[in-house]
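Quick question about two entries, pasted in order.
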Amino acid sequence: MSKPLITLALSLSLLVAPSLAAAQSIQNLRIMAPASPGGGWDQTSRSVQSALQDAGIVKPVQVFNVPGAGGTIGLAQLYNSKGDSSLMMTMGLVMVGAIQTNSSKVDLSRVTPLARLTGEYEVVVVPASSPYKNMGDLVAAWKADPGKVAFAGGSAGGTDHMLVGLMAKAAGIDPRKMNYVPFSGGGETLAAVLGNQVAAAVAGYGEFEAQIKAGKLRAVGISSAKPQAGIDAPTLKSQGLNVELANWRGIVAPPGISGSQKAALISALDKMHASKGWKDTLETRKWTDLYLSGSKFDNYLKLEANRTAGILKDIGLVK
């Protein structure tokens, strides 16, 4: 082989080697869902697992669950897995709030952000028999007696709670005086509103879709900036409440991984996001595509932590 060809071969090997090393670094990938099976983080984790494997981006991929404390138990476990580039964890807005309300010793600044994946807008529903035909009716009664109009939703300090607090503030109601009834699962929230135990309930649209389509619940508002295709609910903004909130979900990795390992994980997620399988998942589950990776997601997390702290302070859950 001539000297120019040898030089070219060496140059090409140097370019290929990092790619091969990066690919090898994410074999036998594990994804932690920091919640019980069946919930949003678990569904997201298993959807990522399927999309990565079906597109041949990473094989094999295993999902496991570490439930508790709004995801902060899983977050602590992730933090203790320093340098493990074959591990990722699903997380989202609920965890951002739980870190603050649970005074977690580990926050998201101590792990490695990779990407924001999806968002699901919140809907406000009332029983079909409710006298509140729209948000205007509901807000009028709420302002007249904040303590009497009860809202059901997920855990205290979670996305549902934050939305009700933002709605109260936008309506001129002291968020500390609102009557929010937290439940540990969507089934309990659904039972409470169907049983007329509360005036209204808040959750992601998917939690209420079947009952809305069956005519048992009425969606009086959605927390998106614009109307959403396939969802018959006017935005909160269009009804005088300047509120927008998406229950987003994302992916992070342990601290202490190298720059090339982080780049390999982000590259795998970028490829997954572009795959047909992932696009089909978004459509089937009615998840909004909010994909954001790399440094943009790093910056977003910092801003979101500050915004969430403000909301939780208004509600009275943090000082």
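Here is the second entry:
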Amino acid sequence: MTIRILIADDHHVVRKGLVFFLQTQPDFEVVGEASNGQEAVELAKKIKPDILLMDLSMPILDGIEATKQLKAIQPFIHIVILTSFSDQDHVIPALEAGASSYQLKESNPDELVLAIRKVMNGESQLDPKVTTHLLNRLTKRTKQEPKLIDSLTKREKEVLKEIATGKSNKEIAASLYITEKTVKTHVSNILSKLDVQDRTQAALYAVQNGIH
């Protein structure tokens, strides 16, 4: 299956570099480029890509607002943030807006390829440096768990912890010595109890509340 990708970044050189690299993957196809958030929204509505690589700092409309607008009209589009900002003031709003993945431009390009493939499989993926940064900040806060966390069973908390590290259901099953079907049941229960829509939001909830 070919993964159709739209790139949104206001730097021409960055876009061309991404096009060159992504096209080396046999199943990747770059189907469009946008130089600002508004253009990204309009192009995405027209060509309906599988993946939208979204920069955050762009003119006219920034990446977070563009993500909000697109998820409102195309809820099934997969948005991968690709930026230089690793602080929680950017990461958390981007994920809350609906991004499925958050990657840093400085990281190994292979991490971006992995993120795209994971997102296409319905999984979430945070850049390891972003995860470390968030955890370091959040461990300084109180570790008192809110009532929603208290509603989870011990096993569900273990699964949530694994989700927060970006593991797939198969990887979680191997780590906890349970079946993949059991993992899927736990994930479904976790999403329901935490009142979140997907694994990305569950992972964000876990990180925000010190579940790691």
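Reply: The chain is about 55% helix and 15% strand. The radius of gyration is 17 Å. Hope that helps.
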